[in-house]
Amino acid sequence: MDDRRDVVVSVDAAEITKRSLIEGRLLVLAAIIMSALTLRAAVTAFSPLAETIGAQIGYGAGIVGVFGMLPTAMFGVAGLVAPLLVRRFGLERTVFVAMLLAGAGSLVRVFAGGTGELLAFSGVALLGMGIGNVVIPPLVKRYFGDHLAAISSLYIVMVQLSTVVPAFIAVPVAQAHGWRISMGVWAMVGFAAAIPWLVVLRDRRGRDSVDSTALPARAASTGKVWRSPVAWGMAGMFGMTSLTTYAMFTWLPKILSDAGASAGFGGSMVGLFALIGLIPALGAPTVVSRMPNPFPVVVGAMVLFATAFVGLLVAPMHATVLWVVLLGLGPSTFPMALTLINLRTRTPQGSAALSGFTQGVGYAIACLGPLLFGLLHTWSGGWLAPFAMLFVALGVLLAGAWQACKPRMLEDSW
């Protein structure tokens, strides 16, 4: 009789443990989704309103360019800072603080009365989002290593939505309620994303900090990542994709307006460019996870990019929608790179080191894209020289992807 009771108790305990694990993973999944929804909102909620805000608080076109470079610059800083925070505080505490920074910076900046305050607190928000960029891939690896492709697709789609939705609703909300409300509502998303991480931290009871410092070898992981061809390949692949994408986000309306398009048409094409990015966000992680070496997919993406560039250069107002659709499919290498961060590492700590290096170096390079594209246009008086720069970037991207896509692990190559 006692033996049967012991068996029943043991079964009940196992079921409770299993249920707790499932509930814990669902909570982390919700936290990852909420965090991903914050990772671009501070950028695209501001961009459509930049001129309106400038007219009110007093800055000109030059400062708009500074705001344009700020996201990639702060994301680059975050790529260098985040691995240090992860080793000191753990993944969960780091992402919790990142969401608080994103929410606080986004909220405080809407009360700014001058350009300096707006820049400073936009920087705080972007730093938080940049840290989130770095730590979410290793969090996916830690909690969902058995479903990397599916969860990677899900969170990358959420990142894409955080790019598209604020851009589409920023102007209508500002017209109805003012620009401060239009930007301020996105601060609530950052604070909301911090709440489930707080619950995760409470449930883990400090185990995240122990996990992140338990192995002495991890202390050297950031230094060693610089020696790896996998890391440099990832940085080249990610950086050139971001450079090209941000250059097109910035200059596509001007390219089309010079060809005779209206401002409204140029804006709608930027929206289409961002919206098409949902397609590779959904499909690329699954494709990459099923191929030992996904370099042929990178080559295909470069063909799409190149075709779009030629179309926009030679016939921008003929088949414009086709060129923009191809342009939106070209950055398939962005979700590919984010997925490869986990596929080319053995541990969450290796993933954090590779993510930090890839995004730190990549975004530092990417912030030069819009600036160089504009300078070359001013210098040459046309669009041939700027597009030639982007073709060079595609060559560097291919060289980086050749290294990043090889079926080998970061930890075996440093």
TrEMBL record:
Where are the bilayer-spanning segments?
Answer: 26-47, 59-82, 94-112, 118-136, 148-171, 183-201, 230-249, 261-283, 295-315, 321-341, 353-377, 383-402
Membrane disposition: Multi-pass membrane protein
Looking up Pfam families in the UniProt record yields: MFS_1
Compartment list: Cell membrane
Task: Please name the InterPro entries in this protein's record.
Answer: MFS (IPR011701), MFS_Cyanate_Porter (IPR052524), MFS_dom (IPR020846), MFS_trans_sf (IPR036259)
The record's GO molecular-function terms, alphabetically, read: transmembrane transporter activity
Carries keyword DNA repair?
no
PANTHER family found in the cross-reference section: 2-NITROIMIDAZOLE TRANSPORTER, PTHR23523
Q: What is this protein called?
A: CP family cyanate transporter-like MFS transporter
Q: Which organism is it from?
A: Nocardia alba
